[in-house]
Specification:
The protein has helices at 4-10, 13-20, 27-41, 47-52, 58-61, 71-80, 94-103, 121-129, 143-156, 182-188, 211-217, 226-236, 262-279, 284-291, 298-314, 324-337, 353-361, 364-378; strands at 64-69, 82-87, 111-115, 133-136, 162-165, 196-205, 242-248, 252-253, 281-282, 295-296, 318-319, 341-344, 347-350. By secondary structure, it is of the alpha/beta class.
């Protein structure tokens, strides 16, 4: 017997069109492919067990001081209707830190869309049967998969909230990546889209748990087993301490955006990306990384930090600290503790150039705004 969401997916016009299109297969074969993908996507969230996950994960979570901003916006949005949380993606810790922002405030949890590489072995069972995560094949081209995924998301949004990462995967360079539009396009096709809002969310860390792994890999060439990534994270967690900021923005209604217009979908994606960029908490480590030279004194660092703070204040960045001396001292300390910088007599030297660049790029989108404005003024 078919469950209600499977029946709803099969009844959708786009799925019916695919089944009758005759794309080199019989309707029965096409239906079997859709059933297989639906079985892969099907997920269950067991909320009591979900809440209990904090306890076995405590050894990791106790290393992270979680700081949440604008939770009243989240409460108002979830009270009013269905919500899609759309976030940037810095670390595998995001899957813990962002849902816990909701759990700590007794706000209903969303289903999370995550890369299929996170679903191998016991962790896959945990994601599928406890946390309620949906495995997404990010680079899939199979028309059967794409039509099934979009139909499933559209139907799911009539029942649950959703959280997904606009960039797809984590940023391996540190900078905000171009938006992926597949899940957003699917959400725009939901029958209840006029009752859905997108809630932009930004997550930021003093130091990212996997910073060295990400920075040295540079660009992700292929998906690796999640078990291998977990092993790397366990190694990186030795001595790890950080604050994690989760900031929520103003809701963006889905009503008024046309899913059949590629321009509309891209405009919505960039509207959300820009909102996330403005929400992103700018921490001292990123500012100091931006101004560092191979060898420099503290006084030189503070002078450059002051100039960068002026620029960031001008674009209304979400600053953690505004005093140049405080930013300098905290940023140097954090990066020294992480092994990125080293102090030799009266000078600070760069030990991990790639990791330093990774942190500097995390605020490049904010520092680029005045440059783009100046260029537009020169070329009206």
């Amino acid at each position: 017997m078919l469950d209600d969401i499977t029946q709803a997916v099969l009844a959708r016009d786009d799925v019916a069109r695919y089944l009758k299109a005759g794309t080199g297969q019989t309707e029965r074969q096409a239906r079997e492919r859709i059933f297989a993908y639906l079985d892969e996507l099907r997920t269950t969230q067991r909320y009591p067990l979900y809440r209990a996950l904090k306890h076995p994960l405590y050894p990791i979570l106790r290393k992270v001081e979680r700081i949440y901003e604008r939770m009243e916006v989240v409460r108002a949005a979830t009270t009013a209707g269905r919500v899609i949380y759309v976030s940037n993606h810095k670390s595998h810790l995001d899957y813990l830190v962002e849902p816990l922002a909701l759990e700590d405030h007794k706000i209903r949890p969303p289903v999370i869309a995550a890369g299929i590489n996170l679903f191998g072995g016991p962790l896959g069972l945990l994601h599928r049967h406890v946390t309620g995560a949906i495995p997404v094949r990010r680079d899939a081209k199979d028309p059967a998969y794409l039509v099934t995924l979009k139909a499933y998301i559209s139907e799911l949004l009539q029942r649950r909230d959703l959280l997904f990462y606009l960039e797809g995967g984590r940023s391996y360079s540190g900078e905000m990546r171009s938006p992926k539009t597949g899940l957003l396009h699917a959400a725009l096709q939901a029958d209840n889209r006029d009752e859905i809002v997108v809630l932009p969310a930004a997550v930021s860390y003093d130091v990212v748990l996997e910073d060295g792994i990400l920075a040295h890999q540079g660009a992700k060439r292929r998906q690796r087993p999640f078990s291998r990534e977990v092993a790397e994270m366990v190694g990186a967690a030795v001595g790890y301490q950080s604050r994690a900021f989760v900031t929520f923005g103003t809701p963006i209604p889905l009503s008024g955006w046309d899913h059949e217009s590629r321009r509309d979908v891209m405009a919505l994606a960039h509207t959300i990306r820009d909102a996330i960029g403005r929400l992103y908490k700018v921490v001292p480590s990123s500012i100091v990384a931006t101004v560092m030279r191979p060898s420099t004194t503290r006084a030189e660092v503070e002078r450059r930090v002051a100039a960068v703070l002026d620029t960031l204040t001008g674009v209304q960045a979400n600053l953690d600290e505004t005093d140049p001396a405080e930013v300098t001292d905290r940023g140097l300390h954090v990066l020294e503790q992480r092994g990125v910088l080293v102090k030799e007599r009266d000078r600070w030297r760069v030990r991990e150039r790639l990791v330093l660049r990774y942190y500097a790029r995390s605020i490049a989108h904010l520092l680029a705004q005045p440059k783009r404005a100046a260029a537009a003024a020169r070329n009206p």
